[in-house]
Protein 1
Amino acid sequence: MPVKIAIASGKGGTGKTTVTVNLYHFMSKILNSKVQIADCDVEEPNASIFFEELESAKSKQVTQLIPFINTDTCTFCRKCVDYCEFNAIIVIPPAQFAEVSPSLCHSCGACLYACPEKAIIEQPNEIGQINTFNHGVDESFLIEGRLKIGSSMQTMVIKDLVKDDWINKEVILYDAPPGTSCSVVATITQANYIILVTEPTPFGLHDLKLMIDLVRKLNKPFGVIINKADEYSDTYTYLKEEGIEILAEIPFNIDYVKSYAQGSILKNIPSDIESVYTGITQKLKNKLIHHA
Amino acid sequence: MKIAITSTQNIPESTFDLRFGRASYFCIYNTENNSVEFIDNENINANSGAGIKAAEKVIELGVSRVISGDFGPKAKDLLDKFKIQMVMLDDDSQTISSIIKQLNK
């Protein structure tokens, strides 16, 4: 079984994908390990844009079961409506109308149980895709979930994405969505270790605290990377008081921001960035890899 | 014809509610007998689907026109399906009775 590391943040834009892409690069190189990125930010997966000459290997549909009401046998009793926690079922008796709104349905199946006429059946409905990419000889080095536009079932796509054990890989890097809600929980519950990427700002610290509450509740070991590091002292004071490990500090560099915007962070990596990731890779190796 | 107007309270002097799914009340104005009835929005605090449920309600009440601030995509789809006219009004200082007066002009 591969070692699974999730990269999460709470606040958006702190550098989760930057860290994930760099860790893939340096862990592959330094540890000579088979590393895979799993881009779990299914609303806007973007890890793929940092790799040139990507080759699409596979694409799989993710579906959700949506109830379908047969209006020939439906008596419009509205029992299914009462059972539905999500207001996804519309029944208008005078119009002999009964329909399910797929974008509200969570596929819980309560309506099937509720229906005394057995007028409801479930049918698969596409909510997204899981795409796998090769990079030269590095087969399936990247998998990404991509939520269908209009769907709000992020968690279902992520669960499908992380359920594979990838026995031919040694390290899986889960690039988490921002926030601390269900989609993040679905991403990090599979992980053996969690890297929290933060930025030293009041917003960054606020959301970091929420994220730390979450990973502690899930009993996951974790460490913090301070990206765009500067002298905002509250973040350091908090981490020190809580006894939380700082894995690394990545200096802010405007040229590096520009190379990110061009999608070329893996080309001409500055030496200070290289030494930061070499350090993180060694720390992660000592923590995780030799236990695996 | 029945017209639904979203309302912040349940009296004709109430101000207009810009929200559709999360309106406090639906005023049902019947143009045939000039009657006015206020219906509680039981889905005002629903976690999801308030808009589509409001649309379901007004369709069930036999309304042919709805006046509100705006309509979300799910409510709009359902109201369209039943060919119910949606009228958007952006002035929430108006009262329900003044809107009805304008309808009768």
Note: Residues 9 and 84 of chain B are 24 Å apart (CA to CA).
Protein 2
Amino acid sequence: MDIKPVLIAFLAVIAVGAEPPAGTGPGSGTPSIPERDLIDTAAIYPDYEILVIDKPISKDATHRPTVVAGEQIRSTERTTALEALSQESADIYVSSRGAGLHGVSSGASGGIYIRGLGGSPNSQILVVEDGAPDYMGIFGHPIPDAFSPALIDRVLVIKGGDGVLYGTNAMGGIIAIENKWPGNNGVSLDHDAAYGTFNTFRDRISLFCKNGAIDAVGGFSSFSTDGHRDGASGSSTAGQIGVRFHLGQSATLSLRDKAIHLNGGDPGPAFHPYTDRWFEVLRNTFTGRLKMSLIDWNLSVVPWFNFGEHRLYDGFFSRDYTAGTTVEATRSFLDSKIELLLGAGGDHIDGLVTNRITDETETVKPMSGGSAYSQLSVSPKPGLTLVGGVRAYYSTRYGYVPLYKAGIAWGVFQLLTLHSRITRNFRQPTLRELYLPYPTANPGLKPEHATNWDAGIELSPRFLHLSCSVYKTWAQNLIKYFGMWPSAEVVNIDQMEISGIEGELELKAWNPFRFFLTGCWQNVGRFTKQNPGAKANVRGEWSRTMAHGVLVCAVSGEWVHDIYMNNYCRDQLDDVLVFDGSLRYKAVSPSDITVEPYVLVRNLLDSQYEYIKYYSMPGLHFLAGLRLGI
Amino acid sequence: MPGLNNRRILQRRLFPAAVFIFFSLLSCSIMQPEVVVINKIAPQVLIKNPCINGIVWNTVLKYEEATSPRRCMRGQGKVHFQKFDPYAYCVRQVEYGLIDTLCMCDTAAAIKDSSIISATPLWYNYQTISSTNVSSGGYSIIEITLDDMEQDFSVPGPYGH
């Protein structure tokens, strides 16, 4: 029996029951308390009084990261959480192929480009969750569909990379995810279920519990869809649990585990759909974190262990492991005018690859690395911050690799900030590129290096935020894939330069309207494969306070220009222009139950567009849901 | 009374909202065009796995046989399919001596070297020459004919990851 309609109906019944009692409803006489006093948009989602461990925006004050709140990701009109990040900054580009899942292997979307680096595969973009890197060991890239937003507090997208603080793979950028912990004693629950076109069902539950010195969190999310065409169906299930112990006044120990199971397939080009090219992914990530203050030092120890199994229709089977530990110590001197960060870390990657049909096993040699790093921040006068850092990385395969960075941020006036940063980053080849025939092995590959520079200006008067940055990347030995099996090549290319400019405009205090616009233009040179030349995102929001809650109507749009399926400007795709919309009614009952029915309308203009050639995106479609917070 | 209030809320807010959402969801499905493909090539020709605009019928159609109607994405597209001509195949098998006799064909001199031909029937990729524009809410019957088909070399390699 299909339980989805029953569950939706059940939630609808709860929603009716959760409405405020008679006497405060419309048409029932004058409310005892003025309605506008009862309703406060900020009170609708107090975020369950969540505290975040690392509250400073970034460890490097000269970073200008894109900060996306977890709430924003969970309520996005876009199809996936990664696309929600792309919506917030024009220099982040994420490809898509359908109504929910990005997939893995051939035909997958979810390639993340940040300022022209990254893409398919995403091994130049590092995803860090609660201080621990999260990537598939053998293929060396994050799994796009493993980005589960149920417990996320906020996400920082650090553009331009930071190899000094994050090590290998942090070349194009870092997506740093911080999860939530409960703040006050008690239990809170958030449940969001939605159903829509293409038999799409989405369910998220998050539970927060605090009892004295112990915090506990749990999250579950499930997604399934039939897809908008044959072969595009799929499902994902993710579960997370975490517990944090307060050890006295100045120490906490937290343990988290996240498991994810993905099922789906490559639907193939629209004119030649595949219905049997399935994949199955099972991954688990364990992260610990010990934070403590020792004399004048703040210490943080983060061990992690990540493993996964991938199965494909053609017999491919892989099991990969990554494990490591990072130790960091920070201390302030001279009334916080000088901050020193010292760190050390090590990781180990191993795995096995077999073909279950032919029973052939590929030889994969494990890789290990260790590094020591430091960062010094100096604030000689208010508003001026200088940052410098170095990392010495030692790889068992490539030996010693030096990395460095330097940055400056200067608040010229209270409203105006100038900033500039230069970083030297690197990525070591993945086990796949070295040893596996996908599409071909090349054990002679050298590590990639990139020097990223940016400079920008920010203007933040009370009613708007305006920023503009120019950036340039000089990359050497980038690993590129050419041709197809059996004539494929995986080689280092000598030199590549990327330059671009991006800007943002946000109108904040024009109630009841909000408006956000971001745009980016870049020159990526010859390597144009899935690396667009220009992109813009827009979002407009209108809200109205009503009797029992707040009605919020939002429209967001994306325009992508100069997308090519191949390097050297070959196989150009039409520009993407797509708008999504949402309508939400956020209400809080006197018993503090939040009820939020909503409708997401995707592709409002019913445009025909595609990010990947012949992988046409769905037309107009809907998702209707109900969210409850207790 | 709370019960009455709930009923009023149900009537005035949730019911219209539910109706709106129901018809919105329904309209998305109805808007997708329906397509039928008919094999009109020749009496002895079979076609397999015809597909257009994101849908594929995993079936074999004999002459004048039609697929069931199915909804697909709107837009312009060609029908791609695999073609097999059993008559030509059998004639070749007789020519190369892999089968003894075949009615309807001459008794050509049999070549006893069976290694030069595979006994496995081969389905070749074909596509229609003309494109069909299937629009939202439409219903299209596409007939595949002998003078509107060509070999299909368009199947791309994997996009890669």
Note: The interface with chain A takes residues 1-2, 4-6, 8-10, 14, 17-18, 20-21, 24-25, 28-29, 31-32, 51-56, 58, 72-75, 77-78, 80, 127, 136, 154-161 of chain B (CB under 8 Å).
Protein 3
Amino acid sequence: MSDSQSDLNLQRSRGTERIKEGTYGGFMLVCAAVTLLTTVAIAFTLLHDTISFVQEYPIVDFLTGLEWSPNPAGGELLFGIVPLLFGTIVVTITSAFIALPIGTLTAIYLSEYASTRKRAILKPMLEILAGIPTVVYGYFALVYITPALQATLFPSMSTFNALSASLMVGIMVIPMVSSISEDAMSAVPDELRQAGYGLGATKFEVSTGVVVPASISGIVSSYILAISRAIGETMIVVVAMGSNATLPTVREGLFNIPFIHPGDVLLEQGMTITVAMVNIVGGDLVGGTIPYDAMFALGLFLFITTLIMNIISDIIAERYREEY
Amino acid sequence: MGVEHEHEQTNFGQVSRIRGKIFEKLSLGASVFGILMLAVLLVYVVVDAFNLSSASPEWLLTYFITLVVPFIGFCLYSANDPKLTKQAVLALGGGLPAIAGTYIGVEAFIRPVPGLTWQLIYLFTVVVPVTAYVGFAGSREPVGRVGFGLLGRLVGGTALGFMFLILFVVFEPQAWFWAYTLGFLPAVGMLAYSRRQPKSIVSVFFAPGLIAASILAVKPDDPFITIRIPLDYSFLPYAADWIEGTISAVTIYLAVLSVPAAIVVKRAIERRRRTRQAQIGGILALVVGVTASIGIGVAGFAPELILTNYADYPGDWGIYVWSLVIPLTLASAGLTALQVSRKAARQTGVIILFVTVVGSQAATVVGISPKTAVLFLLAVSIPTLSFLRQVAKRQNGVIGVVLPVLLAGGVIIGAVIVDIWGVTPPDIWLNWSFLTAGPSATPELAGFYPAIVGSVLLISLVAVFSFVLGVGTAVFLEEYAPDTGLGGKVTRILQINIANLAAVPSVVYGLLGLGLFANLLGFGLGTAITGALTLTLLILPISIVSAQEAIRAVPDSMRNGSYAMGATRWQTTKNVVLPEAIQGILTGMILSLGRAIGETAPLIMIGFPNSIFNPPSGILETTTAMPMQIYVWSSSVKSGFRYGAVAAGVVTLLIVLLLMNATAIIIRNRYQRDA
């Protein structure tokens, strides 16, 4: 614990006591080492199979290939990550459109407007959103959201589509944005608010003009964490988005400017990196084949992406934090 | 300065009330958006699971009158607040025509609402909120507190009984019999002895004793943990596979046990202390030692003696009574003796014994086997009895105990009325056969039983692993790890690493499980142990952080007090820090287990099968889990699966989650009240 204690010799030097102290201390060290070993094991497992994948399949084709077909009936195996990246980015951006504004507004409401009692009710209820199993969200998207959207806004929507899945991913990550942002906003000292009021500002102006800028590092880092969560989300997209790894057709618009129609992307099936992994594992589990190794390459890609985003979020939260 | 002043004015000067109001409402709307959306979805899934959309209005009306109205009446009586009563009656009475009118209007002029009737909308928008609010208000008064407390014990006890039942599906009762009789019982005896004689070396052997006991409890025909005795068991077709393992584990255990036993006997004789404790310890040690030597002798030289007598093992009922009812009754009575009086303790013991032993035998009358009944009765009777004694002692709100009777009566009367009236009840998906049947190709026959058993098995294993690892790591980081120097750097790296592990997507943990546990270490694809280890690593960061917070909340003054008394670091941790922090640790642990029970992606990655027809009977067998089954069913094209069976599964999973979280919240509230 504290420094003064660590100078003392708290391991008494008599027989059984000493054995006991050593045993229990050692046991706890082993426990702590397990966490470190987990990271090493993840890196090792992913790297091991990724290396054998790279030996079989050129890495440039993997990173730039436009087609993904790991299990074609007799056809050639193609492992281009681009369509999967496209699907992942679509889901991430669409869900961010839902989660980031709603999460931020929620955080502002909880930290600035809500009474203590309202906050005591709202906060646990928001936590429930994060506690619902993701497979249940996927089921909701497939069975309730998609038919509702088909019946009202988009009659041409396919049963499996990116929009419902992204909606649910967005709702799932709202609490992540709101709780971290709210922590950052609550950390803004009251003097700043008082100063704002002293200058004649309204509550709205203090909230948006003082509190949000002062806590912007926390808000941005919560955004990055939420996006990283959306990238790694698996079950919602597996259940509700289908598995069609093709890039959308590029249409020609006015003056022959090529564009991608959002409906082609959002209302149709798509495939994310995580869905591709789940699809491969449905076919091959024993190992040694290229698709099996490709799955680990995708996993490594995912692992590195989320790790980098996590680190960036940490750096932002640390470096740009306003010290009061 | 002047320029800046101008600038500030343009930003802050224009006071607009409307803008502020709109913004406040907008942000409030944003806060409740997700919650409302989830609420609507939950309503739909509950309607689907109970097939309420096909329920006739008469059926709903009957249960509304026999079940809901008495419940609301009880809560209003407890709240004893005329204003609240008036509001509740107004809402229930006025909501009915309002909802019905609006619904009929919408249906006539705009469009029909799919899957809902006005009765259901009334039920979910008026009755459920009113009931919840009234229930909340009622539970804060003595009468309601007693009623809900009793109800909670009954429900919780039943859930616990179900858990016992499932654990005995997985871990064979006979293996448990051995583990208890030769493992836990002597181990606890040793622990008790070493507590009385703290300087004795016996306590060192407590841990190996428990480990050996758990080896016995695990399905013992496993090559990892047993040394096989080369013998021909072919003459025992049924029992051969587990007896083989059991004997080898027994041998190991007894060998471990005999050493401390011999030491204890030697000491007891040498010192010739005439204190009672020493005598008890000596006798105990003698018994253990003799058992050990006989056991070793028999197991090593004449195993046929055990093998041929296998038919004389007590039946499951006897095993439960011997290994669960008796020790738990004694423990309960002992606790009562400490807290109340010896007389009350005797009463408690007799009542519990009577209820469980006689009650379980009597259960055959209604067609429940005694061995099932004994588990449920035991799990329900102990907490209920202690609660009732508290209520009787407090003399406050005793009338609240009628609540369970009221509800049970409501269900029975409702069923009778429905039967006499000739109303056809809806074909509920989430019924008893759904909970007890295996999967099937026909949605109506499909059941959730193997998935429930699998989930309980997984969660039990994850709970054990993550408790040990999580608390161990948290204690290390908070109590042992240095803050400065090189060690401090390592500590910081550990801490950062844990934070990063928490952000790794669950599907990547699945790959870890597949590559490491399933393929490299050979635990097998889709087995319970692979799943449990993977899920343990997945929730480890969460459980570590929550345990750390709980440990950090223990004030330093308590630690320093303990050190000042001359306690070592481990003694301080064990006697001061952990008892103070245990409730916080448990709360965090249950919440993180809630995360584990809903995870699906890692289970898919480690090859959980799409459907298994029998629940697993050991940790090395392939298993399935509730979320996995939901995933499999939801990808089925049959609408009976997609709308019926999955909805029932989702509701089951959510109820389990709700129960877990409620437990966590109850533990936390109790902790806060004490603090």
Note: Chain A touches chain B through 107 residues (CB under 8 Å).
Protein 4
Amino acid sequence: MTVLLTPLDVAKVREDFPLLTHPFHGKPLHYLDSAVSGQMPIPVIERMAHYQRFEHTNVHRGVSALSQEATDRFEEAREKVRAFLHAPSVKQIVWTRGTTEAINLVAQSWGRANIQAGDEILLSAMEHHANIVPWQMLANEKGASIKVIPMDDRGVLELDQLEALLTPRTKVLGITHVSNVLGTVNPLKAIIAQAHAKGVVVVVDGAQAVPHVPVDVVDLDADFYAFSGHKLSGPTGIGVLYGRKELLETMPPWQGGGNMILSVAWEKTSYMGIPGKFEAGTPAIAEAIGLGAAIDYFNALGLDRIAAHEHALLDYATAELGSIEGLRIIGTAPGKASVLSFVLEGIHPHDVGSILDHEGVVVRAGHHCAQPVMTRFNIPATTRASFAYFNDRADVDALVAAIRKVQEIFGAESDDTSAEGQD
Amino acid sequence: MATDPRELYQQVIIEHNKKPRNFGKLEPCTHHADGHNPLCGDQLQLTLSVVDGRIEDIRFEGHGCAIDVASASLMTGAVKGKSVAEAEAMAEQFRGMVRGELDPSTEPHHLGKLTLFQGVKDLPSRVKCAVLPWATLHSALKGEEVVSTE
């Protein structure tokens, strides 16, 4: 049976984003940078403001009704995250500052307890620095080594090599669900099953996946899954680590302090169970509640409707950009998410970014915190447009017009690249 | 409100980016330095021949954005034949200009056509691109071998 989706009412959705109607350099703003950070819709902003106005105090403290209220709202947000990830228990949802902190938590707590000299840490060639550097730090400390799953020229992992890369020394696989540069959606379920067959723990960077792909951590069988609130139209400063219960329970605490203890004495301190033992100090309460509101917002729009809209827009943008001479799209994996990286022949991405910005088209130009990906494609940087549920064809058309302006300014039609000029 | 990019990406800058002057490496050289802009990945290697306190020759190699490459190209042309003291003074004036601290239309300077880069002051994220060659020159003349604009 085919279920027909009612399409997303983008014009109505856009009303929830004041920034999109706010002039930028005196022009309409075309925000094509949701992969760097999503914009918060009014209901999220209002929910956080309401908390700050009427509900705020510290959580898990004291007996006042106000503290109980704040704690309830905070824990409700945790339940929303649990449901969003389809996790079995709310105890498996650990608040962090973001994806980066979540991965560092795994590397520093689970990693330090389980990685030894001579062990191997396997990463994919398309990882963000957040899923590289914490492992390098651990490898350096322990005398372990890093191995890499290569990718082809489309930005598809060469999984025929996975079996050989998963050696008896491999302890952990760090892999992104969706590439922030290439848009590649990795076939996680199969990869995780293959890793588990060799007893390898899998840590998933879900930062770019959550706004585009429905996530079911049980179906994926992920051991750890990390994401950030601000990529999901929530605030910055809040993120999530989901962990398999048996792993979280055996892991030592990471940071120490208030909130993570049962009792403290000079002789001995005992810790909370999960997730509390990983949450030292006062958490980002308003941000957690804001993330909960962002999840409500996504659910109301419908993840499948969002995906359908974004895929249609990506197809349109890919065709439009593909018709521009001298433009090369970096990342052409089948079924990719709505991230479009490109380079223009003879023009540095930072120059592209500056001119696009002036035209009101906000994109990211740079290495996207994924320098090994740049090296793999032998480019210094890319310009990246990323499409969210509030973008429409007018945004793509503005991008195309702005790219043509860049080429005009740089005189792309001139092919005179003869010998070096003289002063 | 930012300057129209055409005011910055003028024809001279576009041309120097496309056909950089003094591109290459001096061997042997008396001074050299490597400049990096970690945020952008821009890289620049400067080699100089300084004789009796005067820059007899200068070359640069590397890759970067148009602002960076054109700045290096125009800088090498501007300082060739100048004394070290004169070059250092130009470096100081150039930095002042792109940071908006020196207005070349009202204040004395020896920047000549380097005033083309004046528009960079309205693009704060690009100031370091324009300054990288000058920071690298300063390091080379001081005998420091690596410089980073971050």
Note: The radius of gyration of chain A is 23 Å.
